[in-house]
Write a structure and sequence with these properties.
By secondary structure, this protein is of the alpha/beta class. The chain is built from seven helices and 14 strands. The strands form three sheets. A six-stranded mixed beta sheet has the order 1-2-3-4-5-6, covered by helices on one side. The longest helix has 12 residues, at 165-176. The chain is globular and about 45 Å long.
Length: 207
Amino acid sequence: MIVETFNVGPLDNNTYLLVDEATGEAALVDPSFDSRPIWDVIQQRGLKVTSLLNTHAHIDHVVENAYFQEMTGAPLALHDADLPLLHAMEQQALWMGIEAPQVVEPSRSLTDGDVISIGGGSVRVAHTPGHSRGSVSFIGEGFVISGDALFAGSIGRTDLPGGDLTTLLDAIRSRLFMLDADTIVYPGHGRSTTIGEERRTNPYVRP
């Protein structure tokens, strides 16, 4: 499976396209601000998006859910613990001084250990709360999409509703740092890294 990164929007967001080349099926993860041009890429390559996945429900990770659901017809998946955040979209928009996007209700509830098929490949859901109550990561062969849990040299903020530092650190250590050292980490913002690099150098998670 190929992981394609689209760095978009004013908040340095990463929207990801997971592509199974053998079948042309794909999943879109966290459609952020200014991510609509990804639809042109999807069309040009003849891909079929079978899943829309949210790592969590902060506005910059869900703002284009409605657009991509309309374009692809794919079901949306989110952890139930982040439904209150999703339903507080007007309040989130007020924080940023922007118009609230259309809210799409998930048709699939993500739970820890779920497997999401993408063509002949798949990703496994790991519940990694702390940045928000329902934050999840998507683990594939040789990679993990960590949302706003783990960044290169940093971790997600915990001062927003549903955030908790102790919970986040425990999730990173018990769910992500257990992966192989050469596992590529694709975060919600910023550059990619590896599990090994973060074990060695991340100042927020080192013992």
